[in-house]
Amino acid sequence: MDNFLNLVTTQGEAIFGSLWPLVWALVRIVIIVLPMFGCVAYLTLWERKLIGWMHIRLGPNRVGPLGLLQPIADALKLLMKEIIAPAQASKLLYFIAPIMVIMPAFAAWAVIPFQAKMVLADVNAGLLYIMAISSIGVYGVILAGWSSNSKYPFLGAMRASAQMISYEIAMGFALVTVLLTSGSLNLSAIVASQEQGVFADMGLNFLSWNWLPLLPMFLIYFISGVAETNRHPFDVVEGESEIVAGHMVEYSGMSFAMFFLAEYANMILIAAVASIMFLGGWLPIVDLPILRDIPGFFWLFGKTFFLLSCVIWLRATLPRYRYDQIMRLGWKIFIPISVFWVVVIGAWVVSPWNIWK
């Protein structure tokens, strides 16, 4: 891999000269973003298939073999639909809102390491960057509700923003515990810190990952991520029986689809970050020669896919919460528990029984 990258750099500098760093950055961005669009599209198909199997019914199976062309058909349908803006809407903010929702979900991937030395920007403040950029999406939700100049979208936007902000606090505390144990904000360093310790020396990598000593925070982060993305059973923002379609009820066509693209892109991001923070990222489950030969990207993909399937499983299983139950869970349960565990982990790290040295 290093020899290939050196060859590409040499040839690129010979062709583009001083513009090569900019061209190479754009190429790497395209290499990350285009597959992400494909993953988002086919995550919708996997959700419909998995829920169909859980409910003992057929999922999409008509468009293409095994229904594999269904996401493409859905995309073409949405692209051909007319985009209608309300007459009294604030047009500029109305069309900016979907972009502000979807762009942070893709921008956060700039610091996600797919395997060792395979990351767009290996910055030391990667974890801080993800926490900052992912919190911008709430502005798009608020703008969507307010700029539509309609009461239903505005009420949905207020509910969505309150829910997102509430669970972001618990997610932030969960990531703080990972920072305390790894001693770094660099995502690659966080993964590297999880292949150290007694169990890792024995070859039992999965027992050295953060999910075991930080299990309460792992569960809080994962459940808060489900609530953060307005997924079932926390989807009262879009609950048709309660408030129509929430903040995006006045949108149509591709502008409407961008909100759902952002939801699925955020699902993938939350699952990938959880895999890196708590499940060892690209590290294999056990340290065996045959498993070490598998590229780290496939391990990260497998762990992310497993967590995404768990999110879909929740949708197929649990009833929707009331809004007051959702807010009580965030403020009265998750935040106090997460604050308590930050103190516990902090004391554990500075104690003689520190297992992360």
From TrEMBL:
The keyword Transmembrane applies. It comes from Polynucleobacter yangtzensis. The chain crosses the membrane at residues 20-45, 92-114, 126-146, 167-192, 204-223, 264-285, 297-317, 329-350. It is an enzyme of class 7 (translocase). Pfam families: NADHdh. InterPro entries: NADH_UbQ_OxRdtase_su1/FPO (IPR001694), NADH_UbQ_OxRdtase_su1_CS (IPR018086). Coiled coil: none annotated. It catalyses: a quinone + NADH + 5 H(+)(in) = a quinol + NAD(+) + 4 H(+)(out). This is NADH-quinone oxidoreductase subunit H. Belongs to the complex I subunit 1 family. The keyword NAD applies. The gene is nuoH. GO terms for cellular component: plasma membrane. NDH-1 is composed of 14 different subunits. Subunits NuoA, H, J, K, L, M, N constitute the membrane sector of the complex. The lineage of its organism: Bacteria, Pseudomonadati, Pseudomonadota, Betaproteobacteria, Burkholderiales.
